[in-house]
Amino acid sequence: MSATRYTYLGPEGTFTEAALRTLPEAATRELVPMVSVPAALDAVRNGEAAAALVPIENSVEGGVTATLDELASGEPLMIYREVLLPIAFALLVRPGTKLSDVKTVTGHPVAQPQVRNWLRAHLPDAVWESAASNADGARLVQEGRFDAAFAGEFAAATYGLEPLVTEIHDAENAETRFVLVGRPARPAAPTGADKTSVVIWQRDDHPGALLELLQEFAVRGVNLMLLQSRPTGAGIGNYCFAIDAEGHIADRRVGEALMGLKRICPEVRFLGSYPQAGVAAENMRALRAGTSDAEFVDAAEWLARCQDGRA
Fold first, then answer.
1. In which element (H, E) is residue 206 found?
2. Which pLDDT belongs to residue 62?
3. By three-state DSSP, how is residue 99 classified?
4. 193: which of 44, 79, 137, 222 is 20 to 30 A away, CA to CA?
5. C-alpha distance from residue 210 to each of 115, 202, 267 (Å)
6. H/E element, 124
7. For residues 200 and 213, is the Cβ–Cβ distance under 8 A?
8. How much is the pTM?
9. pLDDT at residue 95, as a whole number
């Protein structure tokens, strides 16, 4: 395995590359762009790279399905950290292009909902076609296949383009969450401001089935940060669920919730426990009464005394 190589959703000039370069270790790694999320993750699976950075959630569009589906299937991988990146688009064009010249535009499919209102207001007749990534859209503009691309302003120089309009976003404070994914190993120690990601499958479809799964978290005071259903491919109505929960697998409340899920689900895939980006332990909400590690330990000791006749 190449311990010094990180892959990412390419080509050069993507928001994913910009997010990856915020990591301190990126300065000492070989950063390799890949054509797709599956290609970036497969490079980790087959030992060509130590880790891959891929987008997993957008504050406007929600979960990135290509990443969620890839993590839910195939050889298991594990999330080691997350990166949050503010997202604003620039309209990149070939030098000399005016706004009135723009008849065709391109960008990643996740970008379109984030610029839809701007397009309606400024380029109502422009035809949109999706590209594999925002940077790939810039490359297609460079090649003359489209008039303009929505991408990061930083991608302009890479592709010999000019930012005709900058700071385009329909939603203020839009962010994309990226995750650094590697091969499974022991999670890092808890920080007090952690997140645990899993994918779970229902045993069968019946009234209250999802409620039963969620109760494993609720009764232990575990807050959920993301819940998204994804089709399993086994027919209409068959779903698995991607879940992000506050806390670390080493926390008793989280560990016991996962054990509860393992009892009632045919499959639970642990995707990792890792620090929440931009959140300090002292800013975390207070735990509900009865859900701290000390209270779980005290309850276990009480049960042991009862079993020994010492209660």
1. none
2. 85
3. helix
4. 44
5. 34, 8, 14
6. none
7. yes
8. 0.87
9. 97
**Measured CA angle at 138 (ends 26, 36), to 5 deg:** 55
Nearest to 245 by CA among 232, 237, 254: 254
HSE on the CB side for 233, CA within 13 Å?
4
Q: What is the pLDDT of residue 2?
A: 66
Strand, coil or helix: 86: strand
Do the strands 127-130 and 104-107 form a parallel or antiparallel pair, or are they unpaired? parallel
Main-chain phi, psi angles of 292, to 5 degrees: -80, 160
Verify cis geometry, omega within 30 degrees of 0, for the bond prior to 11. Answer: yes
Question: CA 205, 211, 215, 218 torsion: positive or negative?
Answer: positive
Question: Which H/E stretch holds residue 244?
Answer: strand 239-246
In angstroms, the CA 294 to CA 225 distance is 24
DSSP state of 42: H
Q: Which residues of the chain have pLDDT under 50?
A: none
Contacts by residues 288-292 (CB-CB < 8 Å, ≥ 24 positions apart)? 288/221, 290/221, 291/220, 291/221, 291/222, 291/253, 292/252, 292/253
Distance (Å, rounded) from C-alpha 183 to C-alpha 176?
23
Q: Which two tokens stand for residue 33?
A: 């762009």
**Dist CA 311 CA 3 (whole Å):** 54
Contact 253, 291 (CB under 8 A): yes
**Residue 127 burial by CB count (10 A; 0-12/13-18/19+): exposed, middle or buried?**
exposed
pLDDT at position 220 is 95
Amino acid making up residue 16 = T
Residue 177: predicted pLDDT? 95
